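Q: Structure tokens for this one, please.
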Amino acid sequence: MITVAAPEAQPQVAAPAAPEETVFRSKLPDIDIASHLPLHEYCFARAAEVADAPCLIAAATGRTYTYAETRLLCRKAAASLHGLGVGHGDRVMILLQNSVEFVLTFLGASFLGAVTTAANPFCTPLEIHKQFRASGAKLIVTQSAYVDKLRHEAFPRIGGEDKDNALTVLTIDDVADTPEGCLAFWELVTPADDAALPEVSISPDDPVALPFSSGTTGLPKGVVLTHGGQVSNVAQQVDGANPNLYMREGDVALCVLPLFHIFSLNSVLLCALRAGAAVMLMPKFEMGAMLEGIQRWRVTVAAVVPPLVLALAKNPALEKYDLSSIRIVLSGAAPLGKELVDALRARVPQAVFGQVSVYCLLFRSLFHRYCLAK
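A: Here is the predicted structure, written as tokens:
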């Protein structure tokens, strides 16, 4: 007869103790992050208070728009987009250099709960199409100089008779210069009724921006940035008792870095709007025009990147201009060496220098199926 011994009782193993939580708190008060607000409402929170103060300065034309004018035009742009069928969750592509129309389109889409994806207008037609297709953009806002890129065979036909398969393109040029099949941006925006805007319920988790980037390797991919995440990002930079960027009412921020990059969009444009400061928009970098603009509009906050710092530090033309208004120099996108800092500080000794190293620290960003470039 075979007998089987009873199994030995297994010792009880205690569950591992939960790790001790350690929270490091600043001695300064917490920042009240209004992440329940849509991005446009958060950025324009002080618009009524600074209604007559300059908001956008178009350096190319010399035209200045007050906060009251800018907010109204954003609402008119939203009404125009709505009239073209853009609604909550739809994507709009901006194919522009820095301009007033870029700002109006971006914030106008935000009013509707729509999502903006901004592309570099100097990309090739196929590169632009890849982002257009991956983002699912419903229409494109651009200027006539780039329309030929959108006539590439990869794109739907601009203004075609088949409305379901036609590409809607708005151009910001004068009405007389509007290319065939395109719509004139200002012809739609100027007469638009901002009171006709629909009531839109926007959640903090709703996307508002869809920037594309490949980092240093690979193909570009879209990153969904939410209203709540964008508000949190701007708040950590300019809100509270000890903001990272001491931007304030009365400041004039230099916006020469492209708005289709997140550094310029967030740390320059959106932070300036939140602070009640003005933004001097330059469509491209030209040393003489930039220095003249800094002198004319008394720029106080200069957002730069290391190659621009090098150009400024080594260019003898700086001696011809009054740059004494600059109080802050912000460098981002890449490390800035001590030698470059010292060289530029010798030119603008009154300025405080800062390195912006993290633009998206608090973004609640997700990679969505529709935004991955294929």
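A few notes: Residues 54 and 129 are 36 Å apart (CA to CA). The two ends are 70 Å apart (CA to CA).
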